[in-house]
Amino acid sequence: MPTLSELEAAVRTVADTAATRRAEWDALDAATGDGDFGSTLHRGFAAVLEGWDALDRDSERAFLADVSRVLAAAMGGTSGPIWSVGVLRAGVVAGEGGDVDAMLTAAVDGIQALGEAQRGDKTLLDALIPAAEAARGDGDVAGAALEGAEATRELRARRGRGAYAGHRTVGTADPGAVAIAVLAVTLSAGDGDAQRLEALHRVGENAGEAAASGSGDADAPAKRATTKQLVNRPQDAAREALEGLALAHGDLVAWDGERRILTRADGPARDAVALMSGGGSGHEPLHGGFIGDGMLTAVAPGEVFASPSVDQVLAAIRAADGGAGVLQIIKNYTGDVLNFRLAGELAREEGLQVDAVIVADDVASGGEEHGVGRRGTGATLVVEKVAGARAAAGGSLEEVAAVARRAADRSASMGLALHPCSPPGAGPLFALGDEEVEMGVGIHGELGTERIPYAPVDELVTTIVDRLLGDLEPADGTPLLAFVNGFGGSAALELYIVYRALSRTLGDRGLTVARSLVGDYVTSLDMAGMSITLTALDDELTTLWDAPVRTPALRW
Question: Which residues, 6 or more positions from 166, have their beta carbon under 8 angstroms from its beta carbon?
Answer without folding.
Answer: 156, 157, 369, 370, 449
